[in-house]
Amino acid sequence: MSSRTELPVCETCGVQFDRVDPDECPICTDERQYVGRGGQRWTTVAEVSASHRTVVREEYPGLWGIGTEPTFAIGQRALLVPGDGGNLLWDSITTIDDAAIARVTELGGVSAVALSHPHYYSAMVEWSEAFGDVPIYVHESDRAWLPRAGNIRTWSGDSLEILPGRTLINTRVHFAGGSVLHWPGTDGRGALCTGDIVQVVSDRRWVSFMYSYPNLIPEHPDTIRRTVALLENVTFERIVGAWWDRVVEEDAHGAVVRSARRYLEHIGVAPGF
């Protein structure tokens, strides 16, 4: 691991920074996140990796997840999305250790990293550097949230194919750069990796959309309509969310449309689709 594992990491959101105001994390003081009740606290990738382990296991056959045990910060797990041109690391986590690097290398390594939104930036630069300083893709609308310098490539517009068959789609849910990843899936029926941009909920037949999850601020109706429109002609049978086992296994496209309609009806506006 690089010597930069000693850079500051926020204990609440898990994001690593080049430099910070010791009294506040810029991500956690935003209304979409929160400062822990005990006040701002900092740690490092090295400290967290010493007390936690990085686990690599199949989310379902052919798709591997990378997570942290016991859970840390927001608790998301990353995904190693396979395909021609190498694996894509979708989203990131704070921990990284030699055993995880070795296991991911056995699975084909990492050719690129892509992020859904700033809450999951975590130790993305450490992961990039561990696999040869591979490019990190972040939508340009979230450029102001970048916490560290690295091999970061901002992209613009509604979509971008970054590796063969793996295409980012900017829905603007949660953050202006909030994006999801479309790929063929392990069975060719199509899958959408969404982080919590399209949130897989406890009833796996449904999803939801929020501007802030911890503070329960709803997403704007126009943004939800935009998401439905952008995904209208995208084929996907599965949605893979941000945490272990948060997967819509079938009729995922239908789940997005039904869920968006239900959401808009409950906040008292016409779906418009």
TrEMBL record:
Q: What name goes with this protein?
A: Glyoxylase-like metal-dependent hydrolase (Beta-lactamase superfamily II)
Q: Which organism is it from?
A: Rhodococcoides corynebacterioides
Please name the PANTHER family in this protein's record: METALLO-BETA-LACTAMASE FAMILY PROTEIN (AFU_ORTHOLOGUE AFUA_5G12770) (PTHR36839)
Top-rank taxon, per record? Bacteria
Q: Which Gene3D superfamilies match?
A: Ribonuclease Z/Hydroxyacylglutathione hydrolase-like
Positions of the Metallo-beta-lactamase domain? 75-243
Kindly give the SMART domains that the UniProt entry links to this protein. Answer: Lactamase_B
